[in-house]
């Protein structure tokens, strides 16, 4: 496999995309408003797309360029549009006050997770890897951990699900660098698969909203072994 | 050609069951499609026993012994579930639109399930596994009650979280393959370069996929969604979820086992498996809902299969496959029986059901049969497979693992029988609600119980030569590849 050619300004730009990606992920875990969370998710996806284009140029890989175009269409435009369309305006204007932890504690844990991601990546980077893997893998791992954490502390349906989408974005962000030669069909199909998922989750959230009158899914705790109060 | 035709059959049934041609058309089409798919799967399995592997599109679509085995299970259970759904749904639902919607989703779910074993490319397998979750979530929510929606939400959130983590694992796996010199990106291609892969990358990929797909399989401690989803869905869907959906995800995890350094693989599989068996065995004791009882038993059995695969060559891999078969067949039967009990008494609460054998002899007998069979009493299939696991453990001198397994399985056996015994034989405490008293079970449900019981009993007493051949082939696919 030919290694990526060293073009400093492209690599610097990729580092910038990675930094902004991580910043957006931090923002998603801290922000309280559903709409703000959605905007940060769009920003995170845009950074992912930018990185795909830059790595495509570095690797001279048309596949990554196509992945970038498909992700631009699906992750930056279609998925947020689907999420907006499926739910009423009311859900997005609501502030989430009942999050399990306060903002400083959340950010502190997210920071610890980012460092964990960095250290987890080190033994893998020792095996092989160019500059792009050294950048994308730790950020992807950090995003994976922070996204999972976001989903566990959120109680509102949309921010919770956005946390999961951020997790998937992070896996992809690392994947761009570690597996640039992944068959194009698989990568594109993954993007479409996630689009179907967003569509189905939209339907489900609407059902929950209609039937139970809230989208605070964290409050749904009827199913458990203990006797009902 | 028949390889490509098999997934197309349920896909065609999705479209046909949407046609507004009366409330009987959709179930009939679904049943016909399921029967055809099962016939094709049998034919494929017999051909695989002779030819080892069938390829439809090299590197993308192929079926080997392991795939053929999973296909047989998926198509058989979906045939039974289609038959069962006919009467079960007719007893619950009269709205023609909702009936059509149920069958459309049912077929879509079956389509995703048969897609998983057909895929030869790991990343595409990930997509197929993801489809099985996406296409089943609205079935979990089908009853549209608070409980069903809560279960569906937890289900999809944890499924997607698992999928996202596993996705990074698949990327790292691809990286490991590239580091070992590349080759074709397929399960076979991975096997070919496995000895050359950097161990740290393979283990990292496996760890990520184990956490991700382990959540989907329901390994403890990531099992919390499973009893919810597998108890709130309509009973035929539970049979598919617990009987074969978990199996298809487990199938993907088992595909990775040959790629790992054998000694480490053994430890990981045994530890993860034993934790699940142990946790589930004790959680079984305190359930209050009989569908959750069988759901926890699924967590237990997934653990047993993993432990068996961790015991290693040659007995371990074979018994893991045997256990997979007996669990799928028996667990789907258990949910059919639980559904019959639900139709007969209208409640899922164990404490409210007493003397079922008198109020509804068929449901009572089926529930008892299912409980004995899944608990591992002789002469049923699970007894034979669990006994083979113990024997493999002793042969491998893994005495501690075997002893723990025996203890946990015994606890689970008594847990299941304790609850079911009270339900079936206990003295009736409250009269059956008049809405349910005297309504006989729908004929298709009774027929399903009879048909689904046959393999549960037969495979405990007798193993046909073709099944043995298929199990051997399947076991050879999860055995470690030869290393220099």
Overall description:
The complex is a heterodimer of chains A (229) and B (484). Chain A has one domain (8-215). The N and C termini of chain A lie far apart (62 Å). The longest helix of chain A has 29 residues, at 184-212. In chain A, α2 packs antiparallel against α3, α3 packs parallel to α8 (184-212) and α6 runs antiparallel to α7. Chain A is built from 8 helices and no strands. With 229 residues, chain A is mainly α. The mean pLDDT of chain A is 87. With 484 residues, chain B is mainly alpha-helical. Chain B has one domain. Helix content of chain B is 76%, strand content 2%. The model of chain B has no long low-confidence stretch (mean pLDDT 93). Chains A and B meet through α6, α7 and α8 of A and α5, α7, α9 and α10 of B.
The low-confidence runs of chain A, each spanning 5 or more residues with pLDDT under 50, are none
Order of helices and strands of chain B: HHEEHHHHHHHHHHHHHHHHHH
Total count of domains of chain A: 1
Which regions of chain B are unreliable across 5 or more consecutive residues at pLDDT < 50?
A: none
Helix content of chain A: over 70%
Strand content of chain B: under 5%
Q: Summarize the main sheet of chain B.
A: 2 strands, antiparallel
Quick one: how many beta strands of chain B? 2
Q: Summarize the amount of helix of chain B as a percent range.
A: over 70%
Most extensive chain contact? A-B, 51 and 51 residues
- Biggest beta sheet summary of chain A: none
Q: Bin the strand percentage of chain A.
A: under 5%
Kindly name the structural category of chain B.
mainly alpha
Topology of chain A as a string of helices (H) and strands (E): HHHHHHHH
């Amino acid at each position: 496999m030919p290694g990526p050619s060293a073009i400093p300004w492209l690599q610097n730009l990729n580092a910038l995309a990675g930094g902004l990606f991580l910043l957006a992920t931090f923002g998603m875990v801290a922000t309280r408003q559903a709409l703000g969370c959605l905007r940060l998710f769009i920003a995170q996806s845009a950074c992912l797309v930018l990185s795909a284009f830059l790595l495509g140029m570095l690797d001279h890989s048309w596949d990554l360029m196509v992945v970038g175009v498909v992700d631009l269409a699906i992750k930056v435009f279609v998925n947020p549009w689907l999420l907006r369309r499926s739910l009423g305006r009311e859900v997005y204007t609501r502030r989430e006050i009942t999050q399990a932890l306060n903002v400083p504690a959340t950010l502190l844990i997210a920071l610890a997770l980012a460092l964990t991601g960095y250290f987890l990546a080190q033994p893998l980077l020792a095996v092989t890897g160019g500059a792009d893997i050294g950048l994308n893998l730790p950020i992807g791992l950090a995003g994976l951990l922070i996204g999972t954490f976001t989903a566990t502390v959120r109680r509102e349906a949309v921010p919770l699900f956005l946390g999961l989408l951020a997790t998937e974005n992070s896996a992809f962000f690392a994947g761009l660098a570690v597996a640039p030669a992944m068959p194009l069909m698989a990568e594109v199909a993954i993007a479409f698969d996630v689009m179907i998922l967003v569509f189905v989750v939209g339907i489900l959230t609407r059902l929950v909203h209609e039937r139970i009158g809230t989208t605070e899914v964290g409050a749904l705790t009827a199913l458990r072994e203990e006797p009902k109060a | 050609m028949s390889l490509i035709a098999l997934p197309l059959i349920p896909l065609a049934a999705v479209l046909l069951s949407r046609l507004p041609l009366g409330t009987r058309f959709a179930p009939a089409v679904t049943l016909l499609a399921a029967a055809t798919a099962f016939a094709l799967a049998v034919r494929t399995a017999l051909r695989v026993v002779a030819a080892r592997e069938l390829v439809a599109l090299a590197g993308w679509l192929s079926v080997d012994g392991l795939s053929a085995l999973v296909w047989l299970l998926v198509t058989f259970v979906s045939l039974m579930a289609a038959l069962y759904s006919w009467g079960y749904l007719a007893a619950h639902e009269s709205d023609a639109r909702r009936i059509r919607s149920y069958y459309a989703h049912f077929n879509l779910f079956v389509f995703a399930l048969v897609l998983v074993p057909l895929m030869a490319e790991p990343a595409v397998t990930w997509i197929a596994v993801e489809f099985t979750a996406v296409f089943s979530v609205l079935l979990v929510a089908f009853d549209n009650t608070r409980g069903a929606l809560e279960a569906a939400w937890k289900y999809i959130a944890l499924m997607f979280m698992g999928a996202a983590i596993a996705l990074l694992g698949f990327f790292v796996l691809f990286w490991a393959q590239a580091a070992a010199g590349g080759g074709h990106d397929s399960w076979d291609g991975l096997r070919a370069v496995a000895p050359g892969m950097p161990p740290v990358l393979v283990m990292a990929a496996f760890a990520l996929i184990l956490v991700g797909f382990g959540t989907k399989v329901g390994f403890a401690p990531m099992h919390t969604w499973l009893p919810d989803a597998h108890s709130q869905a309509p009973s035929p869907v539970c049979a598919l979820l617990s009987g074969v959906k978990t199996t298809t995800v487990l199938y993907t995890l088992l595909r990775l086992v040959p790629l790992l350094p054998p000694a480490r693989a053994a430890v990981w599989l045994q530890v993860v498996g034993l934790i699940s068996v142990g946790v589930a065995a004790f959680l079984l004791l305190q359930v209050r809902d009989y569908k959750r009882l069988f759901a926890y038993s699924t967590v237990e059995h997934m653990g047993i299969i993993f432990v068996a695969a961790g015991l290693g060559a040659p007995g371990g891999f074979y018994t893991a496959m045997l256990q997979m078969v007996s669990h799928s067949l028996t667990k789907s039967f258990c949910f059919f029986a639980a559904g019959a009990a639900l139709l007969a008494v209208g409640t899922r609460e164990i404490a409210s059901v007493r003397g079922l054998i008198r109020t509804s002899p068929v449901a009572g007998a089926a529930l008892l049969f299912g409980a004995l069979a899944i608990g591992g009493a002789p002469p049923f299939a699970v007894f034979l497979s669990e006994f083979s696991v113990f024997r493999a453990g002793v042969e491998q001198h893994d005495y501690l693992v075997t002893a723990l397994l025996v203890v946990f399985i015994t606890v689970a056996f008594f847990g299941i029988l304790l609850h079911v015994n009270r339900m079936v034989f206990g003295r009736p405490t409250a009269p059956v609600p008049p809405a349910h008293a005297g309504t006989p079970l729908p004929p298709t449900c009774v027929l399903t119980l009879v048909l689904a019981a046959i393999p549960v009993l037969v495979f405990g007493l007798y193993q046909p030569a073709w099944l043995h051949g298929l199990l051997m082939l399947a076991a050879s696919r999860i055995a470690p590849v030869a290393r220099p």
